[in-house]
């Protein structure tokens, strides 16, 4: 894709002045992160990294991504309710991956006791890249779906004003008008509010499970603020707080510091290092409760890379979404090649294919949060080592998406403005609420565009690699 901003990106002096204006506007709009030096304090903050210009995205792909979001919501919800599918899909992985095994143990424990929760809330984000095809037209390909702690819905509602500002400074009024308004945090909050309402206790609170060190607090506050505007109060607590002060009554209602909790919203708990033994116990307590967890443990498992890979097998979507051939077709159109590495012939063939053409594949463990995937020579070494070991079942192999690079200027605190070759990743936020067997809400609530220099294979905004962006529809 060519950029609209070609000549502007060549004019260094103008870029510097524009960058100064953009950064000031970002700060004024609240596009903020705490600093890595002081991640627990808002005394000193800086702007979240972003692109100076919005990046071009084909309108058709943007529309396609929005159109398939409700299908993905339904799919995640169906997987989370299908204990047999989860068990079968994850059986080889949990023998090798301790983190997934622990999550799965809690899932089994809760099923055995009987699920107390009656209201289910999904806040997810499906991420895509634009695969260039041989005829030149780009195609939407899913990277993954995030079913826990999907972030940047708050800051993404603040960045359109920044890009409109930049374009207005350049007197590009028409272009400024094309930047889409976006407010995921409002939509995410509406989902939480609906779950809170269905829980049915006006004095109950929303519990946000927070990390001690949280640079991305303003993103979370955006959702909290939307809830408070609806008179729904949020308390922020860590897993440690829950293990000290959380309890269940005889009806498995959850109480923290003596206050009843209607909804638990996790912004922690998606990586192994976030769990001490004590934290695992706190997670189990939360899962056993009748509060609406976002996500509940089954929905977190539905977001694993192993599940993603199994969903791409012929017949799986049809089994999970019976009688919905159109939804199935929309979903399948976004799938890239995904391959099981379980022991056996199929896995052997996948490994052979990857070793023969390493640049065309990505090796993924069951991890979230960026920086865990293996590419190129690293992937080759890992595959050679894993080849004859059962451990390979803890990974999946994925076709590598190759978007067409374009130029943009990346702005980061402490670094000079940098014009580089970039690629983008588009995320669509989805919200659904189910009460017992009845779906009460299913929608898309906004988007997130993240852009990074092509030399980085992996990593998001939080990992310091990608920066916030806006789609400029073309
Ligand atoms: P995580 O759960 O850590 O976010 P992802 O599957 O989203 O894992 O991968 C992290 C990053 O790696 C993505 O944001 C993307 O930049 C890159 N990536 C992942 N899968 C692919 C792929 N199939 N092709 C190209 N890049 C990929
Ligand atoms: Mg990701």
Account of the 3D structure:
The protein is an alpha+beta fold. It folds into 2 domains: about 5-335 and about 400-474, no CATH class; about 340-400, 2-Layer Sandwich (Dna Ligase, domain 1). Helices cover about 40% and strands about 25% of the residues. It is built from 17 helices and 20 strands. The strands form 5 sheets. Strands 3, 5, 6, 16, 17, 18 and 19 form a 7-stranded antiparallel β-sheet that branches. Strands 7, 8, 9, 10, 11 and 12 form a 6-stranded mixed β-sheet that branches. A 3-stranded antiparallel β-sheet has the order 13-15-14, with helices on both faces. α5 (about 100-115) packs parallel to α11. It starts with 11 loop residues before the first helix and ends with a strand. The model has no long low-confidence stretch (mean pLDDT about 95). The structure holds adenosine-5'-diphosphate and magnesium ion. Adenosine-5'-diphosphate binds near residues 127, 362, 364, 367 and 458.
Helix content: 25-40%
SSE-based structural type? alpha+beta
Ligand set = adenosine-5'-diphosphate, magnesium ion
Number of domains: 2
Rg estimate, integer Å: 22 Å
Q: Biggest β-sheet, characterized?
A: 7 strands, antiparallel
Give the beta-strand count. 20
Tell me the fraction of residues in β-strands, as a range.
25-35%
- Alpha plus pi helix count: 17
Distance between the termini: 10 Å
The global form is globular
Taking all residues together, what is the mean pLDDT?
Answer: 96
Q: Low-confidence parts, pLDDT < 50 over ≥5 residues?
A: none
Subunit structure: Homodimer.
Pfam families: GSH_synth_ATP (PF03917), GSH_synthase (PF03199)
Keywords: Acetylation, ATP-binding, Glutathione biosynthesis, Ligase, Magnesium, Metal-binding, Nucleotide-binding, Phosphoprotein
Binding site for substrate: 125, 148-151, 214-216, 220, 267-270, 450, 461-462
């Amino acid at each position: 894709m060519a950029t609209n901003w070609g000549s502007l990106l060549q004019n260094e002096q103008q870029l510097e002045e524009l960058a100064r204006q953009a950064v000031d506007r970002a700060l004024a709009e609240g596009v903020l992160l705490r600093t890595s030096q002081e991640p627990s304090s808002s005394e000193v903050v800086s702007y979240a990294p972003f692109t100076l210009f919005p990046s071009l995205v084909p309108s058709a792909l943007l529309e396609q991504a929005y159109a398939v979001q409700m299908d993905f919501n339904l799919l995640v919800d169906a997987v989370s309710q299908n204990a047999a599918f989860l068990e079968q899909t994850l059986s080889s992985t949990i023998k090798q991956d301790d983190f997934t095994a622990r999550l799965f143990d809690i899932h089994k424990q809760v099923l055995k006791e009987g699920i107390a929760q009656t209201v289910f809330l999904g806040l997810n984000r499906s991420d895509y890249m634009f695969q260039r095809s041989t005829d030149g037209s780009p195609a939407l390909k899913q990277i993954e779906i995030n079913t826990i702690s999907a972030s940047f819905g708050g800051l993404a509602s603040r960045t359109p004003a920044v890009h409109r500002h930049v374009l207005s400074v350049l007197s590009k009024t028409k272009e400024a008008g094309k930047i889409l308004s976006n407010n995921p945090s409002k939509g995410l909050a509406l989902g939480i509010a609906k779950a809170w309402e269905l829980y049915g206790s006006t004095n109950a609170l929303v519990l946000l499970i927070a990390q001690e060190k949280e640079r991305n607090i303003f993103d979370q506050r955006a959702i909290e603020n939307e809830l408070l505007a609806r008179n729904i109060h949020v308390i922020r607590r860590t897993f440690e707080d829950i293990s000290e002060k959380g309890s269940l009554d005889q009806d498995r209602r959850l109480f923290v510091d003596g206050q009843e909790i209607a909804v638990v919203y996790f912004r922690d708990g998606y990586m192994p290092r976030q769990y001490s033994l004590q934290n695992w116990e706190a997670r189990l307590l939360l899962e056993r409760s009748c509060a609406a967890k976002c996500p509940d443990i089954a929905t977190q498992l539905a977001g694993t890379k192993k599940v993603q890979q199994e969903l791409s097998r012929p017949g799986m979507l049809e089994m999970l979404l019976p009688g919905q051939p159109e939804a199935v077709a929309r979903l399948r159109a976004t799938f890239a090649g995904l391959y099981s590495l379980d022991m056996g012939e199929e896995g052997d063939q996948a490994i052979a294919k990857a070793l023969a053409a390493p640049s065309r594949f990505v090796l993924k463990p069951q991890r979230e949060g960026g920086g865990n995937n293996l590419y190129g020579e690293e992937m080759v070494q890992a595959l050679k080592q894993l080849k004859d070991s059962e451990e390979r079942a803890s990974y999946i192999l994925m076709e590598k998406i190759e978007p067409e690079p374009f130029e943009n200027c990346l702005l980061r605190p402490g670094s000079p403005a940098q014009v580089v070759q970039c690629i983008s990743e588009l995320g669509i936020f989805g919200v659904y609420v189910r009460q017992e067997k009845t779906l009460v809400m299913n929608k898309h609530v906004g988007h997130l565009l993240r852009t990074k220099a092509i030399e980085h294979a992996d990593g998001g905004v939080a990992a310091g690699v990608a920066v916030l962006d806006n789609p400029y529809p073309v």
